[in-house]
Amino acid sequence: MSDTKIKAVLFDVDGTLLDTEILYSEAIDFVLKDFGTRLTNDVKEEMMGRESLDATNILIQRTGIDISPQEFISRVDIIKEEVFKKAKLMPGAEKLIRHLHKFKIPIAIATSSYRNFFEIKINSHSELFSLFGNNITCGDDASITHLKPNPQIYFVARDLLKIPNLKNEECLVFEDAHNGVKSGCNAGMKVIWIPDFRFLNKSNIPDNLHGAHILLGSLLDFVPEEYGLPPYED
């Protein structure tokens, strides 16, 4: 059980609330096929949770393809606009969001995704995501100058909640990627890591979990009352 009562819950989106990492791979592979190669899981893992240009530089360096990062991003973005429409919820996401909202637990989103793509991803789930109100921070917002693993995005998301005297350690963060976990921990928040082992290698999970409080198999494994939150009713 957590020794600090949680007063707010902050969520990453890609791979945490929405099953979009597989869609990123689909878009990237669509472009990579013109170069006779595919996205491997080790490169994918290194790219996850990073800003688009940074991730693309890693991809180009690791694959050796002959294209500028900007051109690659432009080509992939065209595909993203279509594949992101297929985004599905991760197991347990809807149950947890509705539960927290029902009991008036403040919730916010902190995603490195650019807002235009975020809107496409949530289009089929707009009613659910409306429960976050305006408490949504995206990677291209004017208030964001540094992305994960820098903690800034979690500080901005926290401040949107406008909770007087809210301490960082009273914020619970859900993340799926290495850099996201580091970001939440760097913010001094309590982080629950839910890695997607379709893309992350178990051997790359450090013993200290980058400082995360716990590692769970999915959102379905989360027990709210262990963090001072109301228990599920079913």
From TrEMBL:
Organism lineage: Eukaryota, Fungi, Fungi incertae sedis, Zoopagomycota, Kickxellomycotina
Pfam family, one: Hydrolase
SUPFAM superfamilies: HAD-like
Record-linked Gene3D superfamilies: HAD superfamily/HAD-like, Putative phosphatase, domain 2
Protein name: (DL)-glycerol-3-phosphatase 2
Single GO MF annotation: phosphatase activity
PANTHER family: 2-DEOXYGLUCOSE-6-PHOSPHATE PHOSPHATASE 2, PSEUDOURIDINE-5'-PHOSPHATASE
Species whose genome carries this gene: Smittium culicis
InterPro entries to which the protein is assigned, alphabetical: HAD-like_sf (IPR036412), HAD-SF_hydro_IA (IPR006439), HAD_sf (IPR023214), PGP-like_dom2 (IPR023198)
Organism superkingdom: Eukaryota
